[in-house]
Design goal:
This protein has 368 residues and is α+β, with helices and mostly antiparallel strands. Helices cover 23% and strands 18% of the residues. The protein has eight helices and nine strands. The protein has a nine-stranded mixed beta sheet with strand order 4-7-2-1-9-8-3-6-5, with helices on one face. A hairpin with a 2-residue loop joins strand 1 and strand 2. The chain starts with a helix and ends with a helix. The relative contact order is 0.10.
């Protein structure tokens, strides 16, 4: 996605001329995680949808060639602007998108490389809403993601890791580590570290596959609808256009209309024998397996794995269309059965179960 120059200029004008505005009760904060490519910046505590962002930091001395890479593939950024004055350098990054860049209260900005200079302890952050109005404008603290607020070019490590000096000496001997989704702090009060689905929710939240049902709720035990599942896969593909089939029970004004049309055109979904799709129907475990199986086939992933259903006392309840997809899901570890020894093919897939299955799909099936 690339916005036109005129649109970008209008955004930059709004950002540069914005008057300070109150954050409200919950002030956003900026965290960073250092790597060999620079500092990965994230904003937490975001309210509403963010369609534009600007962050300005000032470092002492000269910093002539900073670079910035936005986190989102559908996000446009012109890079960095650099202004040297009075023995210091002011670096500003801009981002804009046609859809919200944040997932709930979290926003991944991207990676800022200052060429060896350390990030300061604070910066100026501005956020824009859909109407290109400044929704937030204030000085924010920049803190290392896992070190409780330290800054510098040495990076941060989990408890028990080497200190900055040792890291500097051996960093060239180690490959760059990808950001760990298990470090993501969830804003949901109903997803705690002791819950079996916590890591899966971290995964889908960090990868922008699922967000909350409200700002502070994930609703893990709520059934997932058929429309939601198709929308998640549509997001994974970058919200592509395509598909002209219109199911009579799909409201074309709702969020899942375009994803369902796309999924139907791709052969991922067929709808019911009645001709409808049932977008608000809770998706069953066998329906989910069938859709993921077809999606994996469409991507060219290996779908040859097969697991036995003999150990499940309700295996005979699996519908004919779902037998191979269920066997594949068992063989790849996506579905492992219920505590009572059943595979529960017609059982409703909860949001927690879907998060877990999606994480396993990405880790066990999807290819880079």
């Amino acid at each position: 996605m690339r916005r036109t120059l005129c649109t970008l200029l209008s955004i930059l004008t709004v950002l540069s001329c914005a008057a300070p505005a109150a954050w409200g009760a919950s002030a956003p904060s900026v965290t960073y995680r250092n790597g060999s490519g620079g500092a990965s910046l994230s904003v937490s505590g975001v309210n509403g949808g963010v369609y534009g962002a600007q962050l300005t930091v000032t470092v002492p001395g000269s910093c002539p060639n900073p670079s910035f890479t936005p986190a989102g593939k559908d996000v446009y950024s012109p890079g960095c602007t650099v202004e040297e004055s009075g023995g210091s350098t002011k670096i500003t990054i801009y981002l804009t998108a046609d859809t919200p860049m944040n997932i709930g209260a979290s926003l991944s900005l991207g990676t800022l490389n200052l060429g060896g200079a350390s990030l300061p302890s604070s910066g100026e952050l501005k956020l824009l809403d859909r109407g290109l109005n400044v929704s937030a404008d204030a000085t924010v603290t920049l803190r290392a993601a896992s070190s409780g607020g330290s800054s510098g070019s040495g990076g941060s490590r989990p408890s028990g890791g080497k200190d900055d000096k040792d890291d500097k000496n051996d960093k060239d001997d180690k490959p760059e580590e990808k950001p760990d989704y298990t470090d993501v702090v969830l804003p949901f009060s109903d997803a705690g570290r002791g819950d079996w689905y916590y890591t899966a929710v971290q995964f889908v939240y960090a990868n922008r596959m699922m967000s909350g049902t409200t700002g502070d709720s994930f609703s893990p035990n709520t059934p997932t609808t058929r429309g939601m599942i198709v929308t998640i896969l549509h997001r994974l593909e970058g919200n592509p256009a395509g598909g002209s089939k219109v199911f009579p029970d799909v409201d074309q004004s709702l969020y899942y209309a375009a994803p369902i049309a796309w999924a139907s055109a791709q052969g991922l979904v067929n709808g019911y024998d009645t001709g409808g799709f049932g977008p608000e129907d809770p998706i069953t475990r066998q329906q989910l397996a069938a859709i993921l199986y077809r999606y994996a086939e469409s991507k060219g992933y290996d779908t040859s794995a097969r697991g036995s259903l003999d150990g499940f006392r309700d295996a005979a309840m699996v519908n004919d269309y779902a037998v191979e997809p269920i066997r594949w899901a068992v063989g790849t570890g996506l579905i492992s059965g219920m505590d009572d020894g059943t595979i529960s093919p017609t059982g409703r897939a909860t949001r927690a179960q879907v998060a877990t299955i999606l994480m396993r799909f990405c880790e066990n099936v999807a290819e880079d």
